[in-house]
Write a structure and sequence with these properties.
Blueprint lengths: L2 H18 L10 H20 L12 H11 L19 E6 L5 H14 L7 E4 H11 L9 H4 L8 E4 L7 E2 L2 E2 H19 L3 E5 L3 H7 L2 H6 L3 E6 L6
Parallel strand pairs: 1-6, 1-7, 2-3, 3-6
Antiparallel strand pairs: 4-5
Length: 237
């Protein structure tokens, strides 16, 4: 076997090892640990909303989702007790649905900061379709949000993201059909998730019914890799 093939084999084996590695998280089954992490979430929420002169309110509409996500991002088996009628998995990504203004984006921003602050390997960056479209307009590609080859060579070095407020209305943005743009991006991210474990969480104003009617069949099938969670309530704005 030549040197090039050996190097590729080594990279492949390292990739398998990385994906098989199970990190150590604080045990949130212990009440003291859970309360500590819960307080961090609440504090980050208040910091983020302070610039708007608001407080982060935990109520009947979001408290179960916050608890679920705390368990989920810390690989705690108690995650399955929050929505016992759902077949959610710790190995799936998050798709958070809800009406406009209910706090979906804020929740995912809070967890983005929380995961970075606690040095959690599931940490992700938040972005939006408009930011991605502007990047695409300038660079004529989405490498930063997909395989990120510029940061990691030919094989890339993808990062985890949360893309907020994805909808599927077909309209033109500087000549780009947004629906096709979103479809192709999500297909790429699904491949990345399967290959590397790097997630692409989503928030959307669409309901489950709308997701099933607006996305094409091959993309609906990809949503099997998501925990589809519904945030109830009216606008907090």
């Amino acid at each position: 076997m030549d040197e090039y093939k050996l190097e590729n084999l080594k990279k492949h084996i390292d990739n398998i090892k990385r994906r098989a590695f199970k990190p150590v998280y604080d045990d949130l089954k212990i009440e003291k640990n859970y309360n500590l992490h819960g307080n961090i979430i609440e504090e980050i929420g208040n910091i983020l909303l302070n610039k708007e002169g608001k407080e982060f309110i935990i109520d009947d509409n979001n408290k179960s989702i916050l608890r679920f996500l705390l368990y989920y991002f810390n690989d705690c088996e108690l995650f399955s007790t929050i929505f016992p009628d759902k077949k959610y998995s710790l190995n799936n990504q998050i798709l958070l649905c809800g009406k406009p203004g209910t706090g979906k984006t804020m929740i995912m921003q809070i967890f983005s900061e929380y995961l970075k602050a606690t040095d959690n390997q599931k940490a992700y960056n938040c972005t939006s379709i408009s930011k991605m479209l502007n990047y695409y307009k300038i660079n004529n590609h989405l490498d930063k949000y997909t395989y990120n080859e510029n940061a990691g060579g030919f094989e890339g070095k993808p990062s985890s993201y949360c893309v907020n407020d994805i909808g599927l209305d077909s309209y033109k943005h500087f000549g780009t059909d947004v629906k096709i743009f979103v479809d192709e991006f999500l297909h790429s991210r699904n491949e990345i998730f399967i290959e590397t474990g790097k997630a692409c969480h989503i928030t959307t104003n669409l309901s489950s019914l709308q997701i099933n009617t607006k996305f094409d069949e091959r993309l609906i099938d990809r949503f099997k890799t998501y925990n589809i969670i519904h945030l109830t309530g009216e606008s907090r704005r």
